[in-house]
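Q: I'm teaching a short session on how sequence maps to structure, and I want students to see two examples side by side rather than one. Could you give me a first protein with its sequence written out and its structure tokens following it? Keep the formatting plain so it prints cleanly on a handout.
A: Of course. Example one:
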Amino acid sequence: MTEHFTDDPNIDKKDEALTAQRFRMLEDIARELSAKDISFPTCFDAALKIRNALRDPDVQIREVVRMVGMEPLVVVKLLRVANSVAYNPSGRAITDIDTAVMRIGLEATRTLAISIAMDQLLRSKDLVCFGDLPKTLWMHTLRTAAAARVVAARLTRVNREEAMMAGLVHDLGAFYMLYRAAQYEEMRIRPDSVRHLITQWHESIGESLMSALGLPEHIIQATREHDQPHALEHGLRNLEDVVYVANQLAGGLAGWLFNGAASEAGHPLLDDPELSALADEIEREFQTLAGVF
């Protein structure tokens, strides 16, 4: 009797088989990260508007900074170029988009940003299988960036622009995992399995991803364990604390991945009077960021 195997994705695969598929995806991610030439979509609308805006030969540098400064992958790749030996021989890390654009120049910024946006547009169709999840993650990202900027400015001595940038890239690993999961038919039809993988791996994969993309180490450190619950025993002291608090104020992992189902009881941080007093300002900042796109 001949035993037949099938790769039909509509036939449910469980236990060892499904585990093997998950590990294959993680192994493929590890191989790709080692190559350090990585591209993936974050927000279709943002990529489209960046492409259209930067095609205008008369666009002003302020508008360029405003547009590209709100797109995580564009920000990261611009910073990598700005921190390269060719543009930054002193080795002093550049961590804000304004300085990066000034360092590499308007035309180089335009060329790089359009190239990344075009690539993202081509890849974005792969995320359709996950419905609203990528857009929900995008909104969470902007909320975290807004909260980080306001919290840093009002309650700490942390540079607010650097805090906003760290908030913008803190879930880069989750965007990347969504894109990679979409490459596997078995994962595309099992969103719960993808959610499980993101819950378990997005922070460590994000850390490796940001390292491969050349982000400064202190930014990577600040985003390393942003979804791990912990108390701030000494208050808000550094960029890592700001990112953690901003992420919680934006709903945390449950807020975007499970529509808040896992956090109905709320987080103690949300009851802090100093943070509660910033709610309206954070909302205005978020609306400003979201209004760009």
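Q: Perfect. Now a second example for contrast.
A: Example two:
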Amino acid sequence: MEVKENVVVVANQASSELGQKVAERMWVPFTEMIRKRFADGEWYHAFPSSIAGKHLVILGCTHDDESHQELIDLISGGIYWNAESINVVIPFLGYSTMERAKPRSFEIPKGITRTRQIFMARPHFVAFVDLHSEAVLHAHGGAVRTMHVWTDDLVVDTIRKSGLTDYVLVSPDYGFSKRIARLARILDCPHTAADKDRYDTDKTIVGQVSSVVRGKTVIICDDMIRTGGSILQTATRCLEAGAREVVAHATHLVLAGDSVERFRNGPISRVLGSDSFPGRRSDGFISVYSLAPLLAEVIEQHLGI
């Protein structure tokens, strides 16, 4: 296939590996940014060649402050050096669970404020993958085209190829149950939701699950596994309700702190998820599939190439 010479694919450092996979799927060379770090900690960035008049595609996970700022720098650099268009794909949006502030809390809803910072850098197009809340899509004044990329087809394909049989999908809370119902309809399997309450920043309690899990393989599905507390509790409740095995699936495998060890020593037999979060790779316990085919298709359809 002929290389698309008017498209330049770059990534912030965190998403470079995924960016390379996306560029390969698009039959476009991946452009590695020139990066240097000065003695005082400041970063130097440069495009290795002219991007003037070209469609700049930027892959950028924003899971930490440095990655968030680097994404904004790349967008701003694209504008400065006269790219024809600036198209951003955010595989994982940091602070995405903090999309609103509780009344009288005086807390900063960083899911909104940080996404607004990205929009204020003036990209033309921004795509997000499996958002925790779609509220962030509207954190701009209408000047940016946004897209919520759902990974349903990849999730369904992963489950079908997993070797699992006679399964039921379980949502760890009612908030994610609509997505679960959609996936279950495609997979032609039953589904249910756990009864969960949050009582602190990173603490939840799961009360019960439906008896529909009895004798079944349970696949607990969520948008992300951060610390994994609610999923581990849900898995325990499922086993108590008679499930024969429990598997976890999440698009975004954050797996903070000691969560991987807790999962390995807990009631979950396997974890399935995507490579949206930097550094996630398959091993004997975690199975990782790539978002690259889906993201390449999204970019090509948007650019009409």
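Q: What should students look for in example two?
A: Point them to this: The first strand starts at residue 7 and ends at 11. Also worth mentioning: Residues 98 and 111 are 5 Å apart (CA to CA).
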